[in-house]
Amino acid sequence: MKRKILIHPDPRLKKVCAPVDDITDALRALADDMLETMYDAPGIGLAAPQIGVLDRLIVVDCVKEEGEAPRPLVMFNPEVISASDETNVYEEGCLSIPDQYAEVTRPKVVEVAWMDRDGKAQIETFDGLWATCVQHEIDHLNGKLFIDYLKPLKRQMITRKMQKLKREQART
Ligand code: K1U
Ligand code: ZN
């Protein structure tokens, strides 16, 4: 089932999410809903708080090439365990901040640990867009948005645009 994506500003997007201890069928169904919502948007990642669920769960699939097989990853309790000194600048977007993009600098390579949908511990090294996206999604679990990396004036400008968008959406 496709879920509604919350738009910034929303207090649920500022919360630190709770770790998941037990991977239940309900959590697996939630992950499936998140993948459906992400592909439909379309996006390359989605974090549970973006649909109003304050659990440490993200989904990502950064395969963009047409004809290449999709690679949906479901990550419970994802954690960056090491990060490169080398950085990468990427013009990021966010499904909770539609049509706004800005350059964010992050570590280029990150090693990430998580639990998969079967409760199995996984560790993998991500580079390039995958590394950027996983870090962006983990930030969501800590109540942090990509605009929090920007200068206050730019962040304020984007927030005002989103407030206006939400007022317009509420009228229709
Ligand atoms: O977390 C989110 O809101 C999803 C976001 C992830 C992200 C994008 C760019 C850099 C870091 C993280 C998105 O998916 S925005 C949409 C997007 O980037 C995209 C959509 C379709 C095709 C390719 C990219
Ligand atoms: Zn986002």
Give a written overview of the molecule.
The protein is of the alpha+beta class. The chain contains three helices and seven strands. It has helices at residues 25-40, 128-141, 152-171, and strands spanning 45-47, 57-60, 73-83, 87-92, 102-107, 109-115, 121-127. The strands form two sheets. A five-stranded antiparallel sheet has the order 1-2-3-6-7, with helices on both faces. Strands 4-5 form a two-stranded antiparallel sheet. A hairpin with a 5-residue loop joins strand 6 and strand 7 (121-127). The protein is globular. The model has no long low-confidence stretch (mean pLDDT 97). Bound molecules: ligand K1U and zinc ion (ZN). Residues 94-96, 136, 140 line the site of zinc ion (ZN).
Give the topology:
Blueprint: H1 25-40, E1 45-47, E2 57-60, E3 73-83, E4 87-92, E5 102-107, E6 109-115, E7 121-127, H2 128-141, H3 152-171
Antiparallel strand pairs: 1-2, 2-3, 3-6, 4-5, 6-7
Residues 94-96, 136, 140 line the site of zinc ion.
